[in-house]
Amino acid sequence: KPRDGKGLSKTRGFSAEVFAKNISEAKAPEFLEKMPAPDVKIFGDLAIVTGRYTFYVGDKFSHCGTNTFNLVRTDSGWKVVNGASTLEFQCDRDLKAVEIPKIEADPKDVSTIDGIIKAFYETISGGKGVPRQWSRDKTLYMPDVRFVGMSEDKGKIKAGIMNHSQYVNATNEFFVSEGFMERELNRIVRKFGNIAHVFSVYEFMTEGKTEKTRGVNSIELFWDGTRWWISAASWDEERPNN
Fold first, then answer.
1. How far apart are the first and last CA of the chain?
2. What is the rounded CA–CA span in Å between residue 123 and residue 138?
3. What residues contact 25, with CB distance under 8 A and at least 6 apart?
4. Looking at the DSSP assignment, which residues form a beta bridge with residue 148?
5. CA 52 to CA 38: how far, in whole Å?
6. Nearest Cα residue to 19 out of 78, 72, 83, 66
């Protein structure tokens, strides 16, 4: 992509051998590429992996972009069939991306509806400068969870649809810099067999109480025989016409 981010990209194609040769012969102290939140979809013996990445040469930031890999499962394990990457220089959002180490779910968080809703609020709440519990938060959700944040701007209804990493990157800076606390005020649960829906009334405020509002979280859950998972969460805020 041009450095100013405008216009059409130039496309280059090369074999794995040429790519390896370019990397091995590069006169650079070190290459460091990170893909903080890869999205993995497996279809039997085929897989697609995509994600945003950042690229450093030594300790100097170089560029960012999106990687997409097609893989196939063979007798000796997964192999990359081909890969495609964008190379971009407008990287502010990627440099702020939050890396979320993977941890195991705490049974106290996921063995009951009470536990998972309690954790749902605790993981995002905290004072100014306090890191949010994103690793713990991620254990609450199925891999393809979707969040839908409803809002209204000049009379027009908007739906912000996000996966987990997009939600984290969209909210983390505000939560930590302002001090964000959200608590549950009331709850209505409807359960049938191994599925459940929770209407959870919330109130949130910033540490200095510069922002304060109420709303409703609409949370879909399922029980897999061992634990509860959140499959989707939507929310809308209270306002004069709502």
1. 44
2. 9
3. none
4. 161, 234
5. 7
6. 83
Residue (of 236, 24, 189, 226) closest to 111 by Cα position = 226
Q: How many other CB atoms are there within 10 angstroms of residue 138's CB atom?
A: 20
Nearest 5°: CA angle at 111, between 110 and 117? 50
* CA nearest to 138, candidates 95, 170, 106: 106
Report how far residue 204's alpha carbon sits from residue 182's, in angstroms, rounded to the nearest whole number.
4
Q: Which residues pair with 70 in a beta bridge?
A: 48, 82
Closest CA to 87 of 122, 127, 135, 55: 55
Contact 86, 68 (CB under 8 A): no
* pLDDT of the residue at 55: 95
The two structure tokens encoding residue 86: 């964008």
Closest CA to 233 of 149, 147, 166: 147
Q: Are 140 and 230 in contact, with CB atoms under 8 Å apart?
A: yes
Give the helix/strand (H/E) hosting 147: strand 141-153
CA–CA separation, 208 vs 136, rounded Å?
26
Q: Which residues contact 76 (CB under 8 A, 6 or more apart)?
A: none
The pLDDT averaged over each successive group of 10 residues in the chain (242 residues) is 89 92 87 90 96 92 96 97 94 87 96 98 96 97 94 92 92 94 97 98 90 94 98 95 90
Interstrand relation of 195-206 and 180-192 (parallel, antiparallel or unpaired): antiparallel
CB 59 within 8 A of CB 32: no
Three-class secondary structure assignment of 77-92: EEEEEEEEECCECCCH
